[in-house]
Amino acid sequence: MTTAESAQSVESMGTGPEGPGAGAPAAVKSAVRTVLLLEHFAARPGLHSLADIQHDLSLPKSSLYMLLRTLVNLGWVETDASGTRYGIGVRALLVGSSYIDGDEVVAAARPSLDRLSDDTTETIHLARMDGTSVVYLATRQSQHYLRPFTRVGRRLPVHSTALGKALLATHTDEEVRGLLPRRLEAVTEHTVTDREQLIEELELVREQGYAVDREENTLGLRCFGVAVPYRTPARDAVSCSVPVARLTPGHEQTIKAALFEARDRLSVATRRM
To answer: Which of 110, 174, 231, 252 is the most exposed place for a label (fewest CB within 10 A)?
Structure first.
């Protein structure tokens, strides 16, 4: 569902026992609109005009303006010098950082991520599945000059990443069909865009224990990922990203072996979570 579609669904929500949502807790429109607005900014860095935001979210302009001014006063939204363009504020960073700092899995994974980085010399990621995306929780940068760009908090499509495919493989085929549309977004020319073709690949992922992103998310970059099985289906995964130009058969085997060892260490470290 797009942000605009989510916003439109908010407008149709019941607000009391006689509304369309009768029998379920009524949604607080202002709260839902606030979340939609912050997620909108998070997906679109930079500053945006009120007209552009209103066009994207399809919310009433007067209500949107009052919401923006309230969030500006609270520090969740920032404006330019003219006060007419808006973007995410510093308080969002503080909340996001507190999520990472307080997450038990991230804390338990740190030694394993450090060792995996040393063993492979490549870029390492820990990510969590969130709907049809994976969100980066921790990274270790490559020791080489040529390295992929990564950042904590980055959100990528679940179907185009090794992390995401490793996590999807812990679900049943029917669960994957219920989660993903028939046609998937083409991030690069190599992205698998047919859901059934992806499901066939997931069977291979289950058999071999790891997933591969073959330049499906970033051209020139190959990634290998494994799910962390402290719960079923898994929600967290670890990956190693390496430029294709540096990937030899021997290096690939080293990366796979190191990922399996990291998965086993993480399984022990997160056993009670």
So the answer is: 174
Question: What is the DSSP secondary structure assignment for residue 246, as one 8-state letter?
Answer: G
Q: Supply φ then ψ for residue 81, to 5 degrees.
A: -60, -30
Which of 89, 116, 138 finishes a domain?
Answer: 89
Exposed (0-12), middle (13-18) or buried (19+): which is 229, by Cβ within 10 Å?
Answer: middle
**Do 212 and 224 touch, CB atoms closer than 8 A?**
yes
Question: In what helix (H) or strand (E) does residue 155 lie, and over which residues does it extend?
Answer: strand 155-157
Give me the CATH number covering residue 77: 1.10.10.10
| Token digits of residue 118 | 């040393």
pLDDT tens, position by position, 13-46 = 444 444 444 455 667 888 889 888 988 888 788 8
Domain check: are 38 and 171 in the same one?
A: no
Whether the CB-CB separation of 36 and 6 falls below 8 Å is answered with yes
Q: Please tell me whether the overall predicted TM-score, pTM, comes out greater than 0.85 for this model.
A: no
Residue 183 confidence (pLDDT) above 90: yes
256 and 122 share one domain: yes
Give 123-133 pLDDT, tens digit per residue: 999 999 999 99
Closest CA to 50 of 27, 83, 23: 83
SS3 label, residue 227: strand
C-alpha span between 169 and 211 (Å, rounded): 9
Sign of CA dihedral 249, 263, 146, 243: positive
The Cα 47–Cα 86 span in angstroms is 5
